[in-house]
Amino acid sequence: MENTSPFRMAFGTMQFGGRADVAASAAMFDACLGAGVTHFDTACGYNDGASEEILGRLVAAQNTQLYIATKVGYVGGGGRANMTAQFDGSRRRLGMDAVDLLYLHRYDPETPLEETIETFADFQSRGLIAQIGLSNFPAWAVMKAQGVAQRMGTKIDAIQPMYNLVKRQAEVEILPMAADQGIAVYSYSPLGGGLLTGKYAAGGGGRLAEDPRYNARYAAPAAHKAAAGLAQLAHEVGIDAATLAVAWVMARGVCPIISARDAGQLAPSLAALNCTLSPDLMARITALSTTPPPATDRTEEA
Ligand SMILES: NC(=O)c1ccc[n+]([C@@H]2O[C@H](COP(=O)([O-])OP(=O)(O)OC[C@H]3O[C@@H](n4cnc5c(N)ncnc54)[C@H](OP(=O)(O)O)[C@@H]3O)[C@@H](O)[C@H]2O)c1
User: Fold this and answer.
1) From the CA of 259, how far away is ligand 1's center (Å)?
2) In the predicted model, is pLDDT for residue 187 greater than 80?
3) Where is 185: in which H helix or E strand?
4) Which among 37, 41, 135, 293 could bridge 103 via Cys, Cβ 3.0 to 4.6 Å?
5) Which atom, in ligand 1's list, is nearest to the CA of 246?
6) How many angstroms does the Cα of residue 193 sit away from the middle of ligand 1?
7) Which distant-in-sequence residues (6+ apart) come within 8 Å of 130 by Cβ?
8) What proportions of the chain, in percent to the nearest 5, are helix, strand and coil?
9) What range does the domain containing 132 cover?
C-alpha cells in the first residue's frame, strides 16, 4: 500500500516528562531532527501536560519548520466544551497559538459526530488547527465523520490507529479506507510498546512489566512467540529487531510514530529510515504473525 502521509516517520513524546526527563527528552528531540524527523506527536493528557510543556520549549528553541500534532478528548469525550477547554490548555502548554494537526484521541459514542466535527471546523476556520485527525476510531466511524466533515466544507486529514507486527487489525478496514480516502495514517506503537525489541524474550523488563494496560494488551502467547521469532531473525540478518519492526510498518505504507525512553533506545527505531527490507525478508517478518481475515467472508472460494 502507498504511504498516504507526507511523512515517512513521526516521533511520539508520550514519555516526555514521564520515563524521559527533560535532558533525555531533549536528546531524543535532537536525534530526531538530526535524522530529518520533523513530525512530533503529543496529547493533552500525556504526563499531566508535561509532555506538551517540554515539547513546546524544545520547539521554541530551534529554527526548523516542524509539524506538531496533539490530541484532546481521551478523557471527557468529543463535545465542544471539553474539546475547547482541553485544546486551550494544550496551546498554552505548547506555547503555540495554533497546531498543525489536532486529533480526537478516541471515539466517543456519547457525543453526536456533528458536534465534534463542527468544533474541529470552527478551530480550523479560526486558524487554530491546520488539519483534523481521529485516533482509535473504527473505520465506519471515520467514514461517518468524513461525510459530516464534507457537508461542513472540510475533511478528515489523518487517523492514528495502533499498528505493528502483532496488532494488525488495522489491515482489515482502516488502512484500505485511508488509502481510498487519501487520509494520512500515523500509527502508534510500532514496537508493540517494546515487545518487538525482543527484550522480553531475553528476560528483560520495561513497559509491559510496569504498566498493566500494556501488559494486558500484549499478553497473547502468539504475540510473544512472534517477538521471539523476530529477535531470532534479527540475529540471523544482523539488524536490530526494533529496526526490523519499524521498517516493517513503513514498508506496509504507514508512517510509524516511534518512541523511546532515551536516545540510546531510540537509535534502532530511527535506523529504520535507512533500512530497506528485501521482499524475502519482508515476507519472513510478515509470516511471524497471523494475517487478519478479510472484512468480507467467502475466502474459501478464492
Ligand atoms: N493515540 C493513542 O491512543 C496512542 C497510544 C499510544 C501511543 N501513542 C503515540 O505513539 C507514540 C509511540 O507509541 P509507543 O511508545 O507505544 O511506541 P513503541 O515504539 O511501540 O514503544 C516504545 C517503547 O518501547 C521501549 N523501547 C523502545 N526502543 C527500545 C529499545 N531499543 N530497546 C528496548 N526497549 C525499547 C520503550 O519502553 P520501555 O523502556 O519502558 O520498555 C519505549 O518507550 C507515543 O509516544 C504517542 O505519541 C498514541
Assistant:
1) 5
2) yes
3) strand 184-188
4) 135
5) 19
6) 5
7) 98, 99, 100, 101, 124
8) 50, 15, 35
9) 10-195+241-276
